[in-house]
Amino acid sequence: MYETGEAVARAFFDRWNDGDADGLAALFVEDADFVNVVGFWWRSRKAIRKAHDYGFRRIFQNAQLEINELAARVLTDDIHLVHTVSTLRGQTGPDGAPAGKRVAVISMVTRRGPGGFAIVSFQNTDRVEGADTHVRDDGGFRPASYLK
User: Fold this and answer.
1) On the CB side of 48, how many CA atoms lie within 13 Å of its CA?
2) 145 in a domain, yes or no?
3) Could you give the number of structural domains in the chain?
4) What does the pLDDT read at residue 148?
5) How, if at all, do strands 64-76 and 79-89 pair?
6) Which residues pair with 122 in a beta bridge?
């Protein structure tokens, strides 16, 4: 179905923008790993589908995800690594109000199987402008910069 890791990565963004949890989950191998921006680790296609179905109904029903940058690295003929930088707009906040835009770096390990390339592992990381790291202190967990 998908001839390259890049093609299946682009299909992920298309399914996400369609709010299609079934179609999105079908892009993953059965025992795939998916780590989201807050560290939830889903360990199967079924769990990935369930989480995205919830997200599309409650959090991202008005959102769109745009690829700003995409780089694919061929590790072997059958294993491709894909990194993207993307912008998310239109998220709904917990209070129902529109949330601001977010920028994320996504890493995907893809593998060729009998039906073409599929996603084996997925890591989504929010990019926080002006931060070098996170710290936890009495004020909670927050981005921090050590630059003066």
Assistant:
1) 27
2) no
3) 1
4) 75
5) antiparallel
6) 34, 108
Residue 45 maps to a domain: yes
Q: Tell me which residue range forms the domain holding 10.
A: 5-128
Is pTM beyond 0.90 here? yes
Q: Does the residue 25 lie in any domain?
A: yes
What averages of pLDDT result for each successive group of 10 residues across the chain (148 residues)?
97 98 98 97 98 98 98 98 98 96 98 97 95 91 89
DSSP 30-82: EEEEEE-TT--EE-SHHHHHHHHHHHHHHTSTT-EEEEEEEEEEEEETTEEEE
Phi, psi for residue 37 in degrees, rounded to 5: -65, -20
**Would residue 146 count as lying in a domain?**
no
Distance between CA atoms of 41 and 35, rounded to whole angstroms?
4
The pLDDT, as a whole number, for residue 78 is: 98
Exposure class string for 82-95: b at 16+ Cβ within 10 A, else e:
bebebebeebeeee
Residues linked to residue 82 through DSSP beta bridges, in sequence order: 72, 108
CATH number of 30's domain: 3.10.450.50
Helical (H) or strand (E) element with 22? helix 21-25
